[in-house]
Design goal:
By secondary structure, this protein is an alpha/beta fold. The protein has ten helices and five strands; from the N terminus they run αααβααβαβααββαα. The structure holds uracil (URA).
């Protein structure tokens, strides 16, 4: 590009930024652009694991992690003991906020931990994939476009204020990619403790990444959605009915699939409001 040319008109810049935002590139890792052509057409160096943040956009991995990613088993064990110590949701939120064992925290896209929204005694717990840009900015799950669609569907089903909403991971994955199974495993003890503390009657799992991680199954979401499964805690002391359904972000891209998601919600409400059978 001719660096001496007059500045691009604002409309061109806006259009270019909109193009990158649509492609999922909505944050900058460095304050200044690196001119790699002038630097001799070299590929950018591979960043260490977990990726640091050139330009200081994200915190470095703590010394306790040796500046590198802790082995998943150690991080899971640490998460499990911190989660077990949390006596209520406020303590659990604080434990998550202080937890340094998830690589996503250092991957360059997360500004803060995003834990939950909704009443602490909700009969339904909704578990999504992981926070996106809007959630990361506001610190609450499902507050972007997909969350707004979810809220409209919940309102239509009479479920507003009857749901506690969280995700399988608490830090925004870079480029809004799907969280990896390792990232989900590290956060899982906190999700499990949230289920224990809220004690919902039913879990609603949004999208394939949530359904696969929570149910430890490999089928695609279209095969799992609308069916009832039994979710079990790691020590099998807790069991709950769980239904996977389509992720609202998918419904925004495929509006014709809303019919399926709606029928899933209707069957969830029917089960939720079914009178308990006497023992
Ligand atoms: N998608 C998710 O899976 N979770 C959120 O919180 C937002 C979008």
């Amino acid at each position: 590009m001719d660096q001496t040319a007059s500045p691009a008109p604002q409309i061109l810049v806006e259009s270019l930024l909109a193009f990158w935002a649509d492609a999922g590139v909505d944050c900058l890792y460095q304050d200044e652009a690196t001119d790699r052509i002038a630097a001799g057409l070299t590929l950018p160096p591979r960043r260490p694991e977990p990726p640091g943040a050139p330009g200081g956009a994200a915190p470095a991995a703590p010394a306790a992690m040796g500046g590198a990613q802790a082995p998943t088993a150690d991080a899971v064990a640490l998460a499990r003991s911190l989660a077990a110590e949390a006596r209520d949701l406020a303590e659990l939120a604080a434990a998550i906020g202080a937890f340094e064992g998830c690589a996503l925290r250092y991957a360059g896209a997360a500004r803060q931990a995003v834990f939950s929204r909704g009443p602490a005694d909700a009969p339904v717990m909704i578990i999504g994939e992981g926070p996106g840009a809007e959630e990361d900015a506001r610190g609450e799950p499902f507050v972007g476009r997909a969350g707004q669609l979810l809220d409209r569907m919940l309102a239509a089903a009479g479920l507003t204020d009857r749901v506690f909403i969280t995700n399988t991971v608490f830090w925004r994955p870079p480029g809004n990619r799907t969280p990896t199974p390792e990232e989900q495993q590290v956060c899982a003890p906190f999700v499990e403790r949230a289920i224990e503390l809220v004690s919902p009657k039913i879990l609603l799992l949004l999208g394939a990444a949530s359904a696969k991680a929570m149910l430890k199954r490999e089928e695609g979401i279209l095969a799992m959605r609308g069916r009832w499964f039994e979710w079990k805690s790691t020590d099998e002391s807790l069991e709950l009915p769980a239904m996977p359904t389509l992720h609202p972000a998918f419904l925004l891209r495929q509006p014709a699939a809303k019919k399926k998601a709606w029928s899933d919600l209707v069957s969830l409400v029917q089960r939720l409001d079914r009178p308990e059978r006497p023992h």
